[in-house]
Give the backbone structure.
Amino acid sequence: MATAHVQLDKISKRFRLNGKVFSVLEDISLEANQGETISILGRSGSGKTTLLNIIAGLEKPDAGHVNVEGNIGYVPQKDLLLHWRTLLKNVLLPIEIGRAVTSADVVRATKLLERMGLADFIQSYPKNISGGMRQKVSLARALVQNPDVILFDEPFSAIDFDTRLRLGKEIHSQIKNEGKVGIFVTHNIEEAIAMGNKVILLSGGKPARIVYQAEINIGEEFRDPVNIRKSEIFQRHFDVIWQLLSKEA
Amino acid sequence: MAAFKQGGITMKTRYKNYLLSLAVFVVLLIVWQILAVSPHFTFLFGSPSTIFNSIVANTVNGALPFGMWVTGIEALLGFVIGIMLGTFIGFLLWYSKRVAQVFRPYIIILGAIPVFAFAPLIIIWFGIGTVMKIALAAFGVFLISLTQAYEGAKSIDEEEYKLLKVYGASRFQILQKVIFPSSLDWVLASMKLNIGFAILGAFIGEFISSEVGLGHFMITAGSLYDIPSVFAGGFFLVLLSLLFNWVVSFIEKHRLKIVEWFA
């Protein structure tokens, strides 16, 4: 397994639309090491997803350098489950693309689904389960290949509050314990602080720049999804980010 | 208690509408039969009773079932070839954006021409035998299948495409795993649209030159002013169309299994 690492150095991205050039991202630098999760915060349309696409290699930056070490797993905003495949087959999709599926893969995918509380639905189709359950399957699909780097694009938007708290904690510990890198895009301040070892706030204007960057130095014992929200560090970061966002509004 | 609703219409209203449709048909038959007392009217339009007699007589002597079999086979082969070829090329156009751009104007031009206007060319290329009828049916079906498959492929969710790209999928794998299954509804819609065109193609082929088939049966009857037999032939064409529809509906019902097998 490769040593997971993500580094962006002075990334800029422009788009051309109807003959006009729009600068979307400007001078974005970040680094995530093994076991770390970086939360990227910003308003809708601030370029968070573009940044994620650049890390995923789907888009090339116009300036700057990207270095991603390790294979990538991706949890999109919409679950994007293929409705003609069972949950198990949806989870196995990334493996199927790379090579033939083995019985060990099926066991791994089944265990992942069981861990997500979906043991009774393994052979069901996506239309037969709820939005929250679908998002869990999407997460299992991202994890099935045991990726080194996991990209999350607002993955909890369709999930109920208590499930997102529990999943958030689980993802954070998994990334830390298994030495992965997590890049977590969200517009939820609480979630960003609770999930991330680092939080980056993108400005809402065009182009988006990093306006706030902080390490969240909370002991792992406080990473509990409920307790973290009571901690002073959490409150401090929340207040600063909230003030910055309010100024922009 | 509220009446059971399906598609915004209560079951009661639905049955009422069915009965009303049936009543319209029965009234039409009665009026037709009454008007048929006039020999001029009967000469031009026949009558329900003579049409019924012709259906029975030509079914018993095997003329209509055999004609339906011949036309059905020609239409079916043309239908399958046209659908497969059109769908394949439709997906191919999605596969290569450059090919799509190059061929787009030609497809638009071809789409604007009534396909059966090419019948004289098809006779030159394929002769006047069975192959010509199959070719006409296939040609009639081809363009709609192509357009539907291409549009279906283009309608794929950009996010699904992106997800598969992240997993390192090739364009062919995206075609196999996502494009084909998700555009199957478009292909099935094109199949439903094309049933009429396939039968029409085979029928026109028989109209041009044939010794068997429903087209041949109806032309012969028409040339003898045997109007009831022309209607009887038309009735069997409708039966053929319903049979095709039933087959397509069957495929539609089991499309999940087809998709699982392919993708």
User: Anything to note?
Assistant: The mean pLDDT of chain B is 87. The beta strands of chain B are 5-6, 9-10. Chain B touches chain A at residues 157, 159-160, 162-169, 173, 177-178, 181-182, 256, 259-260, 263 (CB under 8 Å). The longest strand of chain B covers residues 5-6.
